[in-house]
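Page 42, continued from yesterday. The earlier attempt failed because a stray header line got pasted into the input along with the sequence. Redoing it now with the clean sequence only.
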Amino acid sequence: MHFLWFILIGLCAGWLAGQLMKGGGFGVIGNIIVGVIGALLGGFLFRTFGVSTGGGLIGSLVVATIGAVVLLFLLRLIKKA
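This time it went through. Structure tokens are written below.
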């Protein structure tokens, strides 16, 4: 069940990141992948900097969305190069 929540949060985070970053997206499947990888990246970044969101659904969504935004930014930099 935890894995299902992780995928759902990643889906929402990918969609939110796509809306926040504006521009050419990666499609539905691409946004899901970006959201899930962004959730992992966001969790890593927040742990590295010692920041806590307090857990829960909203905290997880915020962390995943920030991670997805960072990932989209990096992907766009690489895509331009």
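Notes: The chain has a mean pLDDT of 84.
Reminder to self: strip header lines before submitting.
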